[in-house]
User: Fold this.
Amino acid sequence: MNTLETECVSDQYLRASEAASLLHVSPKTVSRWAKEGKIPHFVTLGGHRRFPKNVIEGLAQDLGKLKI
Assistant:
């Protein structure tokens, strides 16, 4: 994979800390949700989870609309 392909992939996927920031939860919570199958993810060769940016942004929007 060349540098341009790597940049395109990194633009489409978020690290747990980035997803957590958008969702206003801790990275541990994001990882737990992923492990429980509540949010989609894939695991890199290095064992790190990556989350689809569009799904996380949609979830953040939906959570923002909730009145708790």
Observations:
- Confidence is low (pLDDT under 50) at residues 3-7.
